[in-house]
Design brief:
Blueprint (H helix, E strand, L loop, with lengths): L3 H16 L3 H7 L9 H5 L22 H4 L7 E5 L5 H10 L4 E6 L2 H14 L4 E5 L12 E7 L8 H11 E15 L4 H4 L3 H4 L8 H10 L3 E10 L4 H4 L5 H9 L3 E10 L17
Helix pairs in contact: 1-6
């Protein structure tokens, strides 16, 4: 497996190519730059009936509907991690209204450009998009009401850093709702070595129990699974990566690839006293 820097560059490269293609192209070629079939199409949920939906901003790359569960209120400041072409940000904007604010963060400059163009066409003045790494966000601490993210954290090698950053930027009493891909059981070792599957949200996924444990370690409370959906990968995709014997073993195993949406609160008061300067906690 590639190191952290190489993985981030891989993700940036793949999603730059995705940003240059239509939703239909991405659905038919998955990452748009790999041979991973319809993996995204399998994972994606239908956004089209949600208020604020804009087809130009929907590249079909998500694995949930986090804004639907995020308890966003009018006037909130919402941050979308890995905002892509702006799909979730625009839906969140519909909820926060003119008094609210939505900020999208994405590591891919071409995605930021695409999202900004979409926002300009829609005439939105309270939605902005910032180029940056979500494990080192270009945001002040304790300023955000709600964080959402859709099928992005599995692309980040250091998930501890991301959840630490989420804790830092949320206001005391703020919360997040994040859709992501996790696994239960052992992922085929061959998949772990296929770097392109990182951009397809498979080989970057970690154990569900570990994922939830990282959230708890970061200091969050009221951790709640809002959705837990099994992702079934068809044979026509499996054969691209596994031989017949390996496919048989995979199907007999108890390994489960899952799309989850998880909610958690940042406590109104941090009783750990570990976010003081020099504590090394946050």
């Amino acid at each position: 497996m590639k190191n952290e820097t190489e993985i981030k560059e891989l993700v940036r490269e793949k999603y730059s190519q995705i940003a240059s293609q239509s939703k239909n192209q991405n659905a038919s070629s998955c990452c748009g730059a790999t041979s991973c079939g319809d993996v995204y199409n399998i994972m994606a949920d239908d956004y089209t009936k949600l208020d604020g939906y804009n087809p130009d901003a929907d590249l079909g790359l998500g694995c949930g509907l986090p804004t639907e569960f995020a308890k966003i209120k009018p006037g909130d400041t919402v941050v979308d991690l890995g905002s892509g072409a702006g799909n979730d940000a625009f839906i969140a904007r519909r909820i926060v209204g003119e008094r609210g604010r939505v900020i999208g963060i994405d590591i891919t400059e071409k995605m930021i450009e695409l999202a900004k163009n979409n926002a300009a066409k829609l005439g939105y003045k309270n939605v902005e998009f910032r180029h940056g790494d979500i494990d080192s966000m270009p945001l002040f601490s304790n300023k955000v009401d709600v964080i959402v993210s859709n099928c992005v954290l599995n692309l980040v090698p250091n998930k501890h850093k991301v959840f630490s950053e989420i804790f830092r930027v949320l206001k005391p009493g703020g919360h997040f709702s994040i859709s992501d891909i996790v696994i239960e059981g052992e992922l085929p070792s061959k998949w772990k070595e296929i770097a392109e599957l990182y951009a397809g949200c498979v080989s970057g996924a970690i154990q569900k129990s570990e994922y939830l444990g990282i959230i708890e370690e970061a200091g969050f409370t009221n951790i709640t699974l809002q959705k837990d959906k099994t992702i079934n990968i068809p044979d026509e995709i499996l054969v691209e990566y596994l031989n017949a014997e390996e496919i048989g073993e995979y199907k007999k195993s108890h390994m489960r690839i899952t799309s989850i949406t998880v909610y958690a609160d940042k406590p109104s008061k941090d009783e750990r006293n570990c976010c003081e300067p020099g504590s090394g906690c946050c």
